[in-house]
Amino acid sequence: MLRWIDIIKNAKYSNPEPARRVEKSEEGWRQQLTPLQYQVTRQKDTEPPYRNAYCRSYDPGVYACVCCGSILFNSTEKYHAISGWPSFTQPASRGAIKYTFDNSHNMSRIEVMCNICDCHLGHVFNDGPEPAGLRYCINSASIVLVELE
């Protein structure tokens, strides 16, 4: 289980080494993604709160990166945070997420990205439920639900 101190250490010193890398040109990403997905995942934008695909969805499955298909979150870790975006308590694996400090918009936050393709997902905060106290606030445009059979 990841804790806030683990997130800070990853952002400050070193993220887990990814099992593989997926890299494309900007034109390659534009061809693969919808305009909203491109704007969120490659240009680090944020989709509107509450009016997104997974904010109120609690279907079973796993959430994968919309860019490279890597598994990022399990639906069992999703909870209703009343933030306007899907929220998770833990990533699917320790190496699924890449962390970096983000001081944009006059805020100090920790950005979360796919560790395989650097897709912008959202941010992680230390105001989530116990036991770890983490809240991964994720853009629906950067993930896709893969339902389990």
From TrEMBL:
Q: Which GO terms describe its molecular function?
A: metal ion binding; peptide-methionine (R)-S-oxide reductase activity
Q: Which UniProt keywords apply?
A: Metal-binding, Oxidoreductase, Zinc
| Record bears the keyword Lipid metabolism | no
The protein's required cofactors:
Zn(2+)
User: What single Pfam family name could you report for this chain, choosing any that match?
Assistant: SelR
Q: Which residues form the MsrB domain?
A: 26-148
Reactions this protein catalyses? L-methionyl-[protein] + [thioredoxin]-disulfide + H2O = L-methionyl-(R)-S-oxide-[protein] + [thioredoxin]-dithiol
What are the top taxonomic ranks of the organism? Bacteria, Pseudomonadati, Bacteroidota, Cytophagia, Cytophagales
Q: Which organism is it from?
A: Pontibacter korlensis
CC annotations in GO:
cytoplasm
- Protein's name in the database: peptide-methionine (R)-S-oxide reductase
Q: What are the recorded Gene Ontology BP terms?
A: protein repair; response to oxidative stress
Name the family. Answer: Belongs to the MsrB Met sulfoxide reductase family.
> What Enzyme Commission number(s) appear in the record?
1.8.4.12
Q: What InterPro entries does its record include? A: Met_Sox_Rdtase_MsrB, Met_Sox_Rdtase_MsrB_dom, Mss4-like_sf
